[in-house]
Amino acid sequence: MAVIAMSLLAASCSGSKAEAQNENDQNSQEEMTNTEPAKVEVKTTLGNFTLLLYGDTPKHRDNFLKLVAENFYDSLLFHRVIENFMVQAGDPNSKHAAPGTMLGEGDPGYEIDAEIVFPKHFHKRGALAAARTGDAINPERKSSGSQFYVVTGSVLDSAQVDNMQINLLMDQMAKENMNKIQELYTAGNRQGLMALQDSLVLEAKKIIAEGKGPFTKEMIDAYTTVGGAPHLDGQYTVFGEVISGMDTIEKIEKVARDRNDRPLEDVRILSMKVLE
C-alpha cells in the first residue's frame, strides 16, 4: 500500500525580476526562428572544456550566448560539486563570495521557459542542463536565468535501468488509476491496493520486455556505457553537452568540498568565448 499510496499523494519577486522576465519573453518568437547550434569554450582554473548548445532549445541557447557576450560568467565559481552526479555554476553571488558562504540562490533576475525536449535530450554523462527551483514553487519547471550544471553521473547496469523504467511507468499508471486507488485507500483495503500494485508492476515489466518502455535505445546504451543521471530526465531542460574537455569536468567533480557541496578551494570560471 505504501508504494501506491505515496504515488497517489505525490500525484495528488520583485518588480525588476518581472521586467527582466517580460524582456526575455518578448524575444521568444525571434529565438524560435533560429535552430542553429552554437559552441562555447569555457576556461576554468582547472582546465578548459567546450560546450555545444542545441539549436532546438533556442531560448536557453540564446540566453547563454547573451550572458557569454556580457562576460556574465567570468570569475563565477563552480559552487556545487557532487562526485558521480554533476558540477554546477552560474550563481552571480559566487563572484566575490567568502570561503564557506552558502551559494546557489543567485540569478540575473529572470527565469527561462522550460524547453524539455525529452527523450531526445537526456541526462547522459556530459549533458548540459539548466538548474531551477523545485516543482512546489515552480510547477512550470522554468529554468534559472544563469545557473547550469554538467552531468557526470555513474554507469548503470541493465537491471538498474529496468527498475528506473518500471518506476516511471508506475508513476504514470498510478495517475491513470487514481480514482480506483483513492477508493481502495479510503476504504482501507490494503489487500486490494497490493493486488493492484502487483498487476501494475507486471504490466510495466511486460511493456519493458516488449521494448516499449520510456527509455529509448540511445538512452539505455548511454546509461549502461558512459553513464549519467536518468532520475532527472524529463524534469529539467537539457540544452547542450560537453564535446571536448570532459577531463576538466572530471577534475572539478573530484575536488574536496564542504557539507554544502561547495569546493573547499575555489574552482573558478575564468572566461567563456563563443566559437565560430
Question: What does this 3D model show about the protein?
Answer:
Helix content is about 35%, strand content about 20%. It contains 9 helices and 10 strands. Strand 1 and strand 2 form a beta hairpin. The longest helix is centred in the last third of the chain and has 20 residues, at about 190-210. The model is unreliable at about 1-20 (pLDDT under 50).
Report the mean per-residue pLDDT as an integer. Answer: 90
Helix % is 25-40%
Number of strands: 10
Computed over alpha carbons, the radius of gyration is: 21 Å
How far is the first residue's CA from the last residue's CA?
Answer: 57 Å
Unreliable runs: 1-20
Strand order of the largest sheet: 3-4-8-6-9-2-1-10
Coarse structural class: alpha+beta
- The ordered string of helix (H) and strand (E) elements is HHHEEHEEEEEEHHHHEHE
Proportion of beta-strand residues? 15-25%
Sheet with the most strands? 8 strands, antiparallel
Counting DSSP H or I runs of 4 or more residues, the number of helices is 9
Tell me the overall shape. Answer: elongated
Question: Which helices and strands, and how do they pair?
Answer:
Blueprint: H1 2-11, H2 15-26, H3 28-32, E1 38-44, E2 47-53, H4 58-69, E3 78-82, E4 86-89, E5 111-112, E6 127-130, E7 143-144, E8 148-151, H5 158-176, H6 178-186, H7 190-209, H8 217-223, E9 238-244, H9 246-253, E10 269-275
Antiparallel strand pairs: 1-2, 1-10, 2-9, 3-4, 4-8, 5-7, 6-8, 6-9
